[in-house]
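debug: dumping io for the single-chain case to check the tokenizer round-trip. Nothing else runs in this session.
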Amino acid sequence: MNKNIYIIRHCEAGGQSSDSPLTEKGFTQANALSKFLSNRKVDRIISSPFVRAIQTIKPFAEDANIEIEIDNRLSERILSSSFFSDWMEKLEATFNDMDLTYEGGESSREAMNRIIDVVTEIEVSDTENTVMVAHGGIISLLLNYYDKEFGFERWKELTNPDVYLLRITKNDAQYTRLWKG
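debug: decoded output
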């Protein structure tokens, strides 16, 4: 079993809500991303249902004639339903305590389990090369699953867009950053 999963953080967007579209710069980035992916073999595309994620991969999907599968488990993590003026400190705390939950939010472990479930399904699927489009918070938790050093500080280094390749074999899983926006 050899699986290649291209983990893509969406391009620059005009906001954080689920219906926030890409900015003009974000659409330019999406076209550049399409060119970047064009010489890679891709069998399947799975995306967060958020508009910015779908718009990020749409140019490539159309060029490659691959349907975009929507998976709600790739949605960005909700830290809390409450507003925090110190949200960065609150977020950092959730990297230090994976079970910490704020009102109306989900813990890091709960969010990590969602995206790991998607990866597990990819592992047992017939496809070898999958593109997965999501968001910085949930992606950082996925990478943390494979590398405990990928925590809050590494989350802060993520760019829009960002592309990592996760290679999974029978005995190992390794990731590499391929491209950053």
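debug: round-trip ok. The CA atoms of residues 83 and 103 lie 10 Å apart.
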